[in-house]
Structure formats: C-alpha cells, structure tokens
User: Fold these one by one.
Assistant:
Number 1:
Amino acid sequence: MTRRGWLLFAVMGVIWGVPYLLIKVAVADLSPASLVFLRTATAALLLLPLAAARGAITPLRVRWRWVLLYTIVEVAVPWMLLADAERHITSSLAGLLVAAVPFIGALLALLTGGDDRLDARRLAGLLIGFFGVATLVGFDVSGGSLVAVAEIAVVTVGYALGPMIIARRLGGVPAVGAVTASLVLTAIAYAPVGVLQLPRHAPSVAVVLAIAGLGVVCTAVGFVLFFALIAEVGPVRATVITYVNPAVALALGVIILGEPFTVGAAAGFVLILLGMFLATGRSAARSRARRAAQPEQEAVSAGAP
C-alpha cells in the first residue's frame, strides 16, 4: 500500500473509531431517528456549499439511482440501526460485530467477480485481525439483545456494499457531491420523525458535543476521506479500517473513562496491527500490474474536478 494509502488508513481508523463512543453518549438523550437527523443535517449544511461551488451535484443526475442505493445501504439504514442497537449493547460489542465487514466485502467481491480478490496472505490477515478484535473486546454477548445483534448484522452488510457501489458504479463522480447528496436525502427522510422525537428539555453539553463530533468530524470530514481511501486502496482493503475502530474505542475508554487496559487488550492491539498489515498488502503480481497501469490512471484522475 502506498504512503498516502497508509496515511488515509490511519486517519480513517481514528475518525471512524470515535462514533461508537459518541453514539453511546448521544442516545442517552436522543432517539435514534433524532440522532440520525441531527448528524446528517449538520454534515449536509457543511458540505452543501462546497459541493455547489464545485459543481459536484449536477453530474449525479445521470446516476441518481446508484446514489439513492448508496444512501440507503451506507447511511440511512445502517446509522438508524446502529444507534438503536447501541441502546441495548455496549459500544465495544458493536465494534466487534461491525468488524465482520471485511469478510462480507471479500465474500461479495468473490461472488460478484470483483478484481479486488483475496490471496492467502490477505485471508490470513483478515482472520488474524478478526481474532484480534475478538481478543480485544471479548465474546460476551450474554448481556446484549438478539434484536440488536441482528441490527448490527444488517449494518455490516450495508457497510460492505457501500464501498463496492462507490468503486463500481460511482467511479468518476465527484466525491463531495455523492456524499452531500446522500446526507441531504437521509436528513430529509428522517426529518419528520427526528424533529417530532427531539427532547423537550435542553440536551446536555456532552450530547451537544457528541452530535457536533458525529456531524462535523465523523461524517463531513470522514466520508470525503473515505472516498479518497477507496480510490487509493480499493473497496475491500478500505473496509479493513473496521479492525482499527474497536482499538480506538478501547483507547478512548481507557483515557477518558478510566477503563482498565488488560493483557487481553494489549494482545488484541498486536493482533489487529498484524492482521491489518497482512490484509492490506498487495501481491507482487498485482503491484506490477498497478505500476504498469499508473500512467493511465493518472490521466483519468487528472480530468476529475
């Protein structure tokens, strides 16, 4: 993976490791529908002027069906289900379950004939990384709701499908335009229920900060960077950031909430890093093919706004 790919990977691992904690804080005062509405509306207000100034909305008209499908599978449905699930299970367990995304993405790539295939090294990395996540947060699902676990299962499928839609059907579309459109559509869809379910009392400072963090950093900034990561490393490798997310959630718990850092947690960190390194690697043959195609790829990207 390139240096730029590793940098994007590291940044996204942190940015999308934070939401589990922020969602847990926000749903203490907000309904899932209200949280999704506020999160998407905040991010859309930030990105819409930028997208309009760059003329990034107009090109979406010819692919509006794929933009709508992407909105449903990556934003509208998963964020609602994830917020609802975190009212019944811990954020660590949610992170563990979402870590199945790379496996689902790899399976979908194999079933649909994608060019981002698994080799022995990457398969070993995925298995090691998943075992690392399991070691990190444990296998305790006894206190969780089976309905919540099923909700997270749907979330993982959506998160695996989203990057594939971006790579295969929205290639060449301005990233900021696609992201903004998906956020606007989701905010509009959830506005009626989300507004009605807003609490009558003023939310706490922690909840306000959680919403701001989710909308500005984790959504507006996060999605734009995620598009760049997919373009750099491919849709399957991009989803491997879900292995880093639980580690970030644990670190936040230790630093902010004073949670214990156990031997199992330390072992999980090591396994996650090893699995991430192996799963994001590229075979020698694919590296040569990528280098050979690089001039053509650069020419294509040079025409993008």
Note: The chain has a mean pLDDT of 81.
Number 2:
Amino acid sequence: MTTPAGWYDDGSGSLRWWDGAQWSAHVRTTDGAPMVTEQPSVEPAVPVAQSPEATPFTPPYTLPSSGASTERAIAPHPVGSPETAWAVGAPLVQPPAPGVSVLGVIGLAVVVVGVVCACIPATSVVGWALLGVGFVLSLVSLFLGGRKWPGITGLAIAAVGALLAFAVSLVLLATTSTVESTGSPLSIPGERPPDDDGVDTEEGTDPSSIEGAEMVPFAELEVGDCLPFVDYGDTEQIYELPVVSCDQPHTDEVYFIFEVDDEEFPGEDALGDSAWDGCAAQFDTYVGIAYEDSELDFYSYQPTETSWARADDRTVQCILFSYDDVTGTLEGAKY
C-alpha cells in the first residue's frame, strides 16, 4: 500500500512534505510556523532518525537510483491463486487427450452387422439399410470430437462390404433367374434301365418338337400323366417334361409323387436311393403286380441341390415305363 502525499513528522520536531514517493525539501514547524524551504543538498534526502516518541513511518519502498538494477521483486500472492503458479514458474497442465468417438464406434458396429446381413438372402434388405445407417454415422463422427479411427474404419468396411454384398446378390439373382425362367424347380432324371427291345428314338430329341406334346413343369405334373420317350443325351438337369394324351402312343407314365423328409440336402447318391425305395414301394399298388414279376420298369426325377436350396424342392416323381409304345394308361396293367 502506498502512503499518500502529505505533511508528516520527520522525527526532528518538524513536519516534512512526503510527495507519495519520497521526502521533499519542504518543511514547517509543528506550531504552524511558516513553511521553510531547505536548499537541496547534493546528497539525496534521507529521513532523520526518529525519536522514541515520534510515530514510526516507513515508506513502502524506495525508488531505485539511475544506476541501480531495474529488476523489481514480485510481491507474494495468496496460495492457490492463478498468480502464484505464474510467479513461481509452475508448468502448465496439459489438457487430457481426446477419447474415442462414441458415435464412430456405433457406426462401425452397425456397418459390420449390415455387411453380414446383406450377404444373407433372407436378411439382405435389412443389411443394406444397416449399411446405409452405419455409413452416415461413421461419416458424421469425423466432424465431432474424439479420435477418428472408428469412423474411418467404418467408412472403409462399408465400402468393401457393399461391393461384397452386391456380388453375392448378383450370384443369387442369376441362380434364381435360372429357376424362375422355367417356372418350376429343376430335377435330375434317375437312371433309366437300358432299352433291351430297342425302341427307335433319336438321341437328343427336342421334347417340344414332339407332336401333340405340352411342356409341363415338374411342379404341375400329376399322377396318370403320359409321357413319350425322350433321350436327353448328356443333359443332367431338366426343367419340364413333355406330356401327351394317353390315347397317343407313349412309353412313360407318372404313377407316384412324394416328398423327401430330409432337412439338409443328402447328396445325389443318397437322394437317388431314397427315390428308388419310395417308388418301388408303390409299384405293385399302381400296376397291380409285383415289380419282380412285371415286364414294366420305373425310374424317377429328383430335386437338384440348387432347387432344394433355392426353391425348397423336396418332390420326387416316379415314372413307370414300357419298353414298347403303348396306348392308354398303364394303371392296373398287371403285366
């Protein structure tokens, strides 16, 4: 605190003028005598030692002389104030490092789930929607506080996952289009016994070119449908069969249709065995005579692995056939 300017007892019984910074040369007596101005001496004015009776007075500080150091002592500050840390040169506290962006982590998780769902046919629509939401969340997280790596990773996975899901969709679409273009599941013909009597047929005959034939998908075949003999050559998968009137010469006839109970595709060989057993069990019921005693034979059409998976096809068609052309139905033929 600075002592204000005024007349103060200098300890010698006189009042001397304090200009607020130092003693001046102006003095006066305590009894109100006129002010006496002293001639300034060469030496700087120094306060006269105070007597015991005088009121002690100490200036706040002495101004430095022209040759003295200009460094000023810093007054102490209360502990805990901001000035204290600055005065003693305490190191500044570094702000905490930013954490991981929560929105970026959420976007990354949504993208991963979306990629998995988009590659599964049953959930592909939901997967594509999740991919879009995850992409937006990851993008927005880049403009918020926190570390950016979850958002960047989410954008990268979203781009790669979209390409992968699109490729899977194309493959599924191509497979589905193959099945839908025929209007029915495709099937594999079972092994037909050789033609011992030498029925004259042209190898690789186009079924649709047979006179009076109507091409019928497997799903629409019925017991009692009559079929002309067709040599399909090396064809492994068939989508539909030619059906003719039973009054027209033919060799084959649908005599039994049943469903396979297996949940998973058992394989072509195992499925063929199941088809043979199921058809053989119904032979004598339709023909009226045991298979071992009959001149007729049979084969079957069974689902392919593709129609099993894509069209939920479990149907086996049992085909009764004669080595010679017949007219009329073979039901109850008894030979």
Note: The two ends are 135 Å apart (CA to CA).
